[in-house]
Design goal:
The chain is of the alpha/beta class. It has a single domain, classed as Rossmann fold (3-Layer(aba) Sandwich). Helices cover 45% and strands 14% of the residues. Strands 3-2-1-4-5-6-7 form a 7-stranded parallel β-sheet, with helices on both faces. The radius of gyration is 17 Å and the shape is globular. The protein starts with 8 loop residues before the first strand and ends in a 10-residue tail after the last strand.
């Protein structure tokens, strides 16, 4: 199916590894020009080169998304480098899973919430210029909609982002911009959280693996495909304000 993304332009935060890299590659495979940012300059450079080999225009910069001036500057630079953009994917997270002290909460607030808000608000005037494909997509987590373990910053800030997404979907609808989220369950990739737990906490890894109804962890490219689906003006042109849960059936709530 033609998703109608060929010739579109997208920018992705945290686009050099894991889920963010998979999102950038999936959009490029659909014909999107792609801009990325991440904290590591070498990872950004390697990813941009890989994206260009797919035959699209690509650009990127090393950015600390927790610093408002840096994320706003990156958005402006991607606007210039790509000649505008239609799609903004907010993916970066501090992943404050274990650290629930004040420092952990502040890191999560600065990165997940303010990094998201500063980036999206800077991007909206650019996206408004999109003819018919304006979209903002947030990467959340199943932890934002169901309790897993003790209280901690990560799921709490992701829940706040879902509320922001929903409000945004109403605020920008008249400008032709759609706002949606993807909430992944446990995603495995080399160097990721579950790869580390497989090495350091094998019992926890096996327990989570067995608990999933489909019997496996998700793959980053499956989240990338979901983002492309929501970004598509052809198949998701009337989809806005939705949180798409992709978790192999692991959540037990009934969505409403």
């Amino acid at each position: 199916m033609d998703l109608g993304l060929k010739g579109r332009k997208a920018i992705v935060t945290g686009g050099s590894r894991g889920i963010g890299r998979a999102i950038a590659e999936c959009l490029a495979d659909e014909g999107c020009d792609v801009g990325i940012c991440a904290r590591g300059a070498e990872g950004v450079k390697a990813t941009v080169e890989a994206l260009k080999r797919k035959g699209v225009n690509a650009a990127g910069e090393a950015v600390d998304i927790a610093k408002g001036d840096e994320i706003r500057r990156w958005v402006a630079n991607m606007d210039k480098a790509l000649g505008g953009f239609d799609i903004y994917v907010s993916n970066v997270s501090a992943l404050s899973i274990a650290n629930a002290d004040e420092a952990g909460w502040r890191t999560a607030l600065d990165t997940d919430i303010m990094g998201t808000v500063n980036g999206v608000e800077a991007a909206l005037p650019v996206i408004e210029r999109s003819s018919d494909a304006g979209a903002v997509i947030f990467i959340a987590t199943t932890g934002a909609v169901q309790v897993y373990g003790p209280r901690k910053p990560y799921p709490s800030v992701k829940s706040a982002i879902l509320a922001y997404m929903k409000h945004l979907s109403h605020d920008v609808a008249k400008k032709g911009i759609r706002s949606n989220a993807v909430s992944p369950g446990s995603i495995y990739f080399e160097g990721g959280v579950w790869d580390q737990r497989k090495k350091n906490e094998p019992e926890r890894y096996e327990r989570m693996l067995k608990a999933n109804p489909l019997g496996r962890f998700g793959r980053p490219e499956e989240i990338g495909a979901a983002v492309a689906f929501l970004a598509s003006p052809a198949v998701s042109g009337w989809t806005s304000g939705t949180n798409l849960v992709i978790d192999g059936g692991s959540t037990v709530r009934i969505q409403n």
